[in-house]
Amino acid sequence: MPLLQGHNAPGPNFVLVDLRRNDSRGKGSPTVSRRRGADVDQGGTIRTSLNLPAQSLYPSIPTLYDVFRAAQVKTVIWYCGSSRGRGSRAAGWLGDQIAEKGDTQMRSVILGGGIKGWVAGGESFTAYMSGYEADKWVNAAE
After folding, report:
1. Interhelix angle for 61-70 vs 86-101, to 10°?
2. Within 10 Å of residue 36's Cβ, how many Cβ atoms?
3. pLDDT tens digits, residue range 39-95?
């Protein structure tokens, strides 16, 4: 949260990457929403996040590293529902690429607790979300 407040702005300071594709989409829900992308079916996403579904991420890691490096991104923050699976794997994949390149300026980290932890943080956190729908999160802690 401190990264989103004050003078830190996405870009050179950090990039948020939402690895979810459509985790919370119910049976019979449309695959494509008419409103702002995948975040609607998932109850929202943290503002400024890139949506890069984990299912197709691994082959793109070298290219993502090059893009983030060219943009002088210092910290890449990965998250999924809980950041215990996809978030950790993605952070590790980019972390390996960073180490392989000998880069000491960039970090690859997870958002502890993932988007569920973010939402559980309350209104001060959900205020920083796009497409936030409280009813989608009622059973999220389960």
Report:
1. 60
2. 11
3. 435 789 999 999 998 888 999 999 999 999 999 999 999 999 888 889 999 999 999
Rounded CA separation 102/88 (Å): 21
- Could you tell me the residue ranges of all domains in the chain? 2-25+33-132
Which among 105, 74, 80, 110 is positioned nearest to 92, based on CA atoms?
110
Select the CATH number that applies to the domain covering 2-25+33-132 from these four: 3.30.565.10, 1.10.569.10, 3.40.250.10, 3.40.50.880.
3.40.250.10
Q: What is the bridge-based pairing of β-strands 45-46 and 107-110?
A: unpaired
